[in-house]
Amino acid sequence: MSRPGRESGAQTPPDLIAGAIQTEKEAAWFYEMMAEMTSDDEARKTLLVLAKDEASHAAALTNLYFEITGHGVLDPEPTRAEGHPNLFDFPSATRRDALEFALRNETRAADLYQSQADLNADPHFTKIFRMLAETERDHAAYIQLQLDRLDTSSGD
After folding, report:
1. How far is the C-alpha of 132 from the C-alpha of 114, rounded, in Å?
2. Is residue 115 part of a domain?
3. If we measure between CA atoms, which residue out of 40, 29, 52 comes closest to residue 139?
4. Tell me, what's the pLDDT at 129?
5. Which domain holds residue 20?
6. Is 102 contained in some domain?
């Protein structure tokens, strides 16, 4: 999604990083909210670990944004990426639902970061987006492990 005044589809690395910061902040908030809503202790722990990781990604990306722009505040506010999940559309708070939603979210984030790495000509940014993609894939694997454990236990 492009900003006004930019050619269609043309985003600079600061634009991409600003969008990633917003995505990470929203994911951290969502995981914290889901942790508060669930009555399952294991799901709560998983969601809180994910929230902490996403918040640390946002902080690292904010530092990178400052490094390349000299601005500590995102200006203008980042736009929502095409296909970005609406976190308010979450269906319920069962452990399985929370984990399945988190798995879709992490997989989508990994795909987005990998596509940005593949499209970026600057090796510095390519490395950063690949690292983020790998971290999100690690999150997805962690969530899948939790789902597999749930499948072998007696309930949701």
Report:
1. 8
2. yes
3. 52
4. 85
5. 13-76+93-152
6. yes
Q: How far apart are CA 101 and CA 66, in angstroms?
A: 32
Q: Enter the tokens of residue 13.
A: 């690395």
- CATH number at 24 reads 1.20.1260.10
Helix/strand/coil for 3: coil
pLDDT at 43: 77
In a domain, 112, yes or no: yes
d(CA 92, CA 112): 25
pLDDT in tens, 88-133: 555 566 778 778 888 988 998 899 889 888 987 888 888 888 988 9
- CA-wise closest residue to 113 among 4, 21, 9, 6: 21
* Amino acid letter, 92: S
- Amino acid symbol at 25: K
Q: How many domains would you assign to the chain?
A: 1
pTM here? Answer: 0.71
Give the pLDDT mean for 52-77: 81
> Given CA atoms 138, 143, 149, 152 in this order, what sign does their dihedral have?
negative
Tell me, what's the pLDDT at 138?
A: 93
The answer to the question of residue 88 being in a domain is no
Q: What is the mean pLDDT of residues 41-54?
A: 86
Block residue for tokens 């390519």 = 126
149-156 contacts, C-beta under 8 A, 24 or more apart: 150/95, 150/96, 150/99, 156/40, 156/94, 156/95, 156/96
